[in-house]
Amino acid sequence: MSKLTEYREKLNYTQSELSQKSGISVRTIQRIESGANLKGHTLKAIALALQVDPSELNESSKGKTEYNYPLIKLINLASLLFLIPFANIFIPFLIVHFKKEKNIITKQIVSIQILWTIISVALFFTAEILKNELLLNEQLPFFVLFICMLINGYIILRNAMEIGKNNQLRIKLNYSII
């Protein structure tokens, strides 16, 4: 069953009623519900008539990808074993590559680790410069690195809990680096 059919039936519309509300022919609605692609003006008109986001109509339920959530959780937790910058990227990336579990969630996990590694390294070097310029404690850069590792640990554990509960990430980016 297509998403269009699901939304139409949820609102108790017939194909005729949806046709009248959207200005799209009944035959076009029938073709879309049979599996034809929904795009352009037709997508916008039907989404407006059903009062849903257009992107929701393009995902058919039969084409929905089933994710291996236990493996995704393992990929996420693999970063925890290597909180040290760079290892926290390579181990999850290798698991994703060899297990062929490249999807939006695993891309997000690796992207978060890449971004966090860049931030951690930048903060470490900033602390090193400040230590030398302001004659601060010799341990400052390592303290900053330790705090970054704790924050990364929190991100990983929080996402692992959310994957376990709701099959999604709690802390995620609005984009993917990879």
UniProtKB/TrEMBL annotation:
Keywords: Membrane, Transmembrane, Transmembrane helix. It is found in: Membrane. InterPro entries: Cro/C1-type_HTH, Lambda_DNA-bd_dom_sf, MamF_MmsF. The chain crosses the membrane at residues 74-96, 108-127, 139-157. Residues 4-57 form the HTH cro/C1-type domain. It is a multi-pass membrane protein. SUPFAM superfamilies: lambda repressor-like DNA-binding domains. GO terms for molecular function: DNA binding. This is HTH cro/C1-type domain-containing protein. It comes from Polaribacter pacificus.
